[in-house]
Amino acid sequence: MRRGLTHGPSRPAYALWVATRSLPGRESPEFTEALEALRHARLRPEVRITEVPAPQRIAPYAVALTADVLGAADDDEELASGRFVLLHDPSAPEPWGGQWRAVTFARAELEPELAADPLLGEVGWSWLMDSLAMRGVQATAEAGTVTRVVSQSFAALADRPASVEMEVRASWTPIGPDAGAHLLAWSDLLCTIAGLPPLPEGVVALPGPRR
């Protein structure tokens, strides 16, 4: 099912479990605290999180998570997917402007008629900025791209309808200790491009079993 543009990030409300730690090098109390914050982030039930091997050469400490946003429980259709990487380098690399860096990716299929929308890129980037703002998190050195990928089939595959995917690649330097809030903001973006309606203010989904 293709989705059109929706407005406003969804609010997560589900438990996340980070099963292992990716800690190449010496122990870092700050990074351990960040991992605990990720473990306690409560995401929407449609968001399924998996920890994957983290990059080893970018920073001394790193953790990587992938996420799929699924549809109704009876079909488990994938509506969006993405990746969230949190890097920690106590030396505070100059390009980061701090000791932390979040590197993210989010992708979802949209309605084909949106391929020609000249504002698609601006809308995608504003969703990310709105998600960070709504979570009340602070960040600096933001950078990213919004890409539309149009696929059209020919010859023996000509009967296939055209498809459009939006890809949002972004990174930023978190300010403050709450890594979980940055994960939640990213999951808000993922739910938004998946076309999920935002949960009503104050509504929290009941937690289910940890994965």
TrEMBL record:
Which InterPro entries does the record match to this protein?
DUF3000
- This chain's protein is named Enoyl-CoA hydratase
From which organism does this entry originate?
Knoellia aerolata DSM 18566
Lineage, uppermost ranks: Bacteria, Bacillati, Actinomycetota, Actinomycetes, Micrococcales
